Amino acid sequence: MIIQALEKPFSICSFRQDAPVDLNKFGVAFFAHTDEGCSVICPSDEVPQEAVSRDDGWRAVRIAPPVNREMMGVLLDLAKIFASAEVSVVPASTFETMYFFLRSDGYLRALQSLQENGYKVEMTYLQGK
Questions:
Q1: CA neighbor of 99 nearest in space, from 108, 90, 107
Q2: 87 φ, ψ (degrees, to nearest 5)
Q3: What pTM does this model have?
């Protein structure tokens, strides 16, 4: 299994619940809309002006796609590795990919921990819009 370290810094942003957020603006983004609010995780250089607040300082790794449902044990293993390295993590996924957003101050420590636990880590450059 290959873990891809993404080169871009990410931000977690909040928006008014009724804010028009155009997801087509983003190269990569994770969107959540609940009765409590609207949030987007996106590259820091793509944060829309409509954001009410933002939390910068996140980096990302992903399991090289495709990820399937049989890999759930591996996902738990990765979460344990990040916890042992004392790195804050926010997981997010699509149907075929799994991302882990890690606080920047622990990012290199997390990558080293992954390698020490037998995972191959490679840099991946995302295509932006």
A1: 90
A2: -115, 125
A3: 0.87
